[in-house]
Structures are given as C-alpha cells and as structure tokens.
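Work through what follows:
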Amino acid sequence: MEGPTRRGLGGFLAACAAVAALGTVALAEKVPGQPGTFALFGGTQATKADFRTAPATGGGQRVRVRLFAEDGKTPIVAFAVSGERTMQMTLIRDDFATFKHLNPSVDASTGTFHETLTGLASDHRYYLYADTIPASTNEQVYRFNVQPEHIPAVPPASTLQASAKSVSAGPYTVALGDTTIAANLPAKLLIGVKSHGKMAWDLQPIQGGPAFATMIDTSTLDYIHLKPFQRGTSPQAAKSAAMGGNAQTSPYMTAELPALPAGAYKLWVQIRGSDGNVYTAPFTIVAQ
C-alpha cells in the first residue's frame, strides 16, 4: 500500500513529465520548416513550400508538406486533380537504386499533405519530390531532403550509361523505343508492354492512364514531368478521357519528352497488371 509521500512523489514526477512533453511539442512547433527546392524542369515557381518531418509511431518518418502563396503566409488549400490525385510524391535514394511512388493523404481544410516514409537506409540521403497543381497557378514540384543536410549523398555505384531497352517488371516486359536520345531537342518516347511474348492487353489503368512515369535528371536532380498516353491519340485527348473517367489501358504508349540537356536521366515506368499489382520498370536515358 502506497503512503502519501510516495503518491505525492508520483504525482510530482507525472506533472514534470507532462510539462516536459508540452515543452517538447512547443519546441517542435518552433523548429523552422524546410522550404525545399523548386525542381520542375522548365517550370516556373509561383508558390512557397514548407516541409516538416518527425519520427512516426511504429518507425519511419512522418512527413508533412504545405504550399503557400508567394507571400509565404497564405496557405493554398485548393488543388487541381491530376493523375486522379491532388499530389503525387516520389521518394528517391541518392544513388537512384530505389524508387517509391506515393499518394499522400491530405487535410483539405488546411491544404496539408501527409505521408509516412519507411525503409530508409541510415547511410544514404533520400530526396522527396512533391508534385501538385494549385488551383490558382501552374504545376509546382518541390524537392526536399528527408534527412539532415550532414548526411552526404552517395554517388551512383557506376557511371550512368544508357540502359537496355527492355526491362522485366513482374510478369510483364516493358520496352522503350530507345534509351539514347538527341540532346536539346524534343522527343517522343515509345513504350510497349508485353506479357508472355505478346502485347499485354490486360493492363489496368494507373493514375488515370495506361502507365505512370517519373523522370529525374541525375545531375541537377530536376523532375521532368511525363504523362504516357495511348499511342494514336494525343496528350490533350488522353487528359480529357481520364478526367471523364475513361482511363486508357493500351500496351502501346507514347510519352513526350521536352528538349533535355546532355546528360543521364533515370526513368521509372509503372504499370498496373491484371492482378491489380503495380510493377515498376527502371531505365537510364542518355541525352547526347
């Protein structure tokens, strides 16, 4: 049986713990957010970003992204839907060996996007890209460092060279027309998907189209916006069809590339199979 002295001591310690917890929360709120780097190739920055991260319950990092008007004070809460989402996130390791495409949750009342990142290696730097279209302006893409700046970036294991034109992705084979393109000239990237040696007509829509593609400049870390569409149509028609709920599923696709400077680019093409699973095919494109 506890005496009054022990109960009093327990209450005192509990009060101290509560005060300490409140102080920690208050301190966390005062920690400045990371503004990130505007990373959309050919884009124009028209907003400001705020990125915050904290340990997540159960492990990993809980990240939060908000966009503000150019005054840095007015939060943006209205976003256009693109690829069936108001924001796409991409997590890439510094050596380009790992890739994750994420669809964060959003608090629509504050315009705050949330995601939990797991499986991060402590000896690598990770870059998180947030791609969104505020209702009041054009597409905005920001790049954030997930870990503190003191963690050095690890270079790719070998010199980045053009990859093979065909890559296995689960039960499918994803092939490109070429992995070497002319620098400083727009290009069309032909994409084809096969299953058991035949064109795959069993694909399911992914993000409103037949495929989802992410491309990063390995030198500048710029994000190149790509939107694969069904071959024989146009990007405008594909967008209209997707917005009307008629997502494309053809294995014959095209993605339009802007005029890219000479260099190496990592490309990840994602498809959704007949089993509902998403498969990712990595490529290295060289502009020369």
Summary: The radius of gyration is 23 Å.
